[in-house]
Write a structure and sequence with these properties.
Elements (H helix, E strand, L loop, with lengths): L2 H10 L5 H11 L1 H14 L17 H4 L6 H12 L17 E5 L2 E9 L8 H17 L4 E11 L5 H18 L3 E8 L10 E11 L12 E6 L5 H9 L13 H8 L9 E4 L4 H10 L4 E5 L1 H6 L3 H10 L11 E6 L3 H10 L4 E9 L3 E4 L4 E2 L11 H6 L6 H29 L2
Parallel strand pairs: 3-4, 8-11
Antiparallel strand pairs: 1-2, 2-5, 3-5, 6-9, 6-10, 7-9, 8-10, 11-12
Length: 429
């Protein structure tokens, strides 16, 4: 419950909503309410500061698809990237790769950050464990040796501090299993005194060093697409929990990605590109790979099924969830045809398995499925994998209207940034 937002609503109703006032009193008490109303009234003066007035898109996070790993989310991420400078970066946010990178010495520093799965807030150890895996995986698929992690934990005012310990312990478990230390972090309350409840959120960052990068842009016509077997992570754990199948959660407690990527480290000079299958599943990641490039990807649906852990696949099939539309945490590699056996053998020797799931051909930026070459189209959201998601995911909004509204809001933020940068620079002269 966001007490501050409710208090703002009460003031905007000119104090005439008696029911809302009683609700606020019950939540924080009359004395605290009086102090809060005074704070908010005084804060209204900040409206005279242009930088304090947020840009408005007219779209909510849910309505725009933010975080839903689909077409709406892609639009938002590209607009976010447009607000950030790229000077000095080898791989910038605009490149939409798994991590960013900048030159250092004879190689590159690589950095990434991943937030916890929001539905795992109630299960903090799992939340920390899977966020840490995701951050390390994003660094490693770029060809980097992970060097350290950081953590950021936020908990609402009424949350039990034990949840913070559990989340950090989950991160620590991955740290111990991979040998990558946690160098530092931050722990705060969500909204200070103003957000009541027990909601927990946070993120894990990771940095690494790469002699040579394996960016998505390295994919080439003629490559085979080799995919490792995946048992899933935060998404699969969430699917299992919220569909009453907790026995599947244990399948996700692994560091397979670390084993498989480490197994092919000696072939980094051969592998053209590497990504983890997380961005709305292979459907989303394959579309990202062809975006803006003169290539087509041809996928083999049966081979793709062989790259999902049988227990996890059985759960998804039983629930009617398309495995191509959810994160399986497999590693997808673009490999020259002549090197497929060599790389596959390295993965097998390391204890993993991999299958050729497709090929890369000349084309117009399409993903084609099966012998009939059915074109895979972007969806507004990832495959709905909980009962609630199956309800709220119904319908596809007009993407052109969403993009226009978001672009206007982003343009307002960009102009604000330009003016402030100019003012600060001039003030320093």
């Amino acid at each position: 419950m966001d007490i501050e937002e409710l208090a703002i609503q009460y003031l905007r109703a000119d104090g005439k909503d008696a029911g809302l006032k009683e609700r606020l009193k019950d939540a924080i008490g009359p004395d605290a309410l009086d102090a809060l109303l005074e704070e908010i009234s005084l804060s209204e003066s900040a409206g005279s500061l242009e930088i304090a007035v947020p840009s408005v898109s007219g779209l909510t996070a849910g309505g725009s698809g933010l975080g839903c790993r689909g077409a709406g989310d892609s639009i938002i991420h590209r607009l976010i990237a447009s607000l950030l400078p790229t000077s000095g970066l080898t791989i910038a946010p605009k490149d939409m790769d798994d991590s960013g990178a900048f030159p250092l010495g004879d190689g590159h520093m690589v950095a990434s950050v991943d937030g916890i799965h929001s539905r795992l807030s109630r299960f903090p150890f799992l939340a920390g464990f899977h966020a840490a895996r995701a951050a390390l995986r994003d660094v490693m698929v770029m060809g980097a040796d992970p060097l350290a992690m950081t953590s950021d934990v936020h908990i609402a005012n009424d949350g039990d501090v034990g949840s913070v310990f559990d989340l950090v312990a989950g991160i620590g478990a991955v740290s111990e299993l991979t040998g990558v230390p946690v160098a530092g972090g931050s722990t705060l309350r969500i909204g200070g005194d103003m957000v009541l409840g027990t909601r927990l959120t946070g993120s894990v960052g990771a940095v690494g060093y790469a002699d040579d990068l394996m960016a998505r842009s390295g994919i080439q016509v003629g490559d085979a697409l080799l995919m490792t077997a995946g048992r899933g992570g935060g998404t699969i754990a969430t699917t299992a929990i919220y569909n009453g199948l907790p026995e599947v959660v244990g399948r996700t407690l692994n560091i397979d990605f670390h084993r498989d990527i480490s197994s092919v480290r000696g072939h980094f000079g051969t592998i053209h590109a590497m990504v983890d299958v997380t961005n709305g599943g292979i459907r989303g990641d394959a579309l990202d790979l062809v975006d803006g490039r003169d290539i087509d990807i041809h996928l083999d649906p049966e081979a793709l099924r062989r790259c999902v852990d049988p227990t996890v696949l059985g759960m998804l099939d039983g629930l009617g969830i398309d495995h191509m539309g959810v994160s399986t945490d497999s590693i997808l590699m673009a490999v020259p045809m002549e090197a497929v056996d060599l790389v596959s053998e390295a993965i097998l020797t390391g204890g993993g398995t991999a299958h050729v799931v497709g090929t890369v051909g000349q084309g117009g930026g399409h993903v084609l499925l099966g012998d009939e070459r059915k074109r895979v189209e972007p969806s507004f959201r990832e495959e709905p994998y909980t009962p609630l998601k199956r309800v709220v995911a119904l319908g596809t909004p007009d993407l052109s209207e969403i993009e226009e509204a978001l672009a206007q809001a982003a343009a307002g933020s960009a102009e604000k940034k330009r003016r402030i940068v100019e003012e600060v620079r001039n003030a320093d002269r």
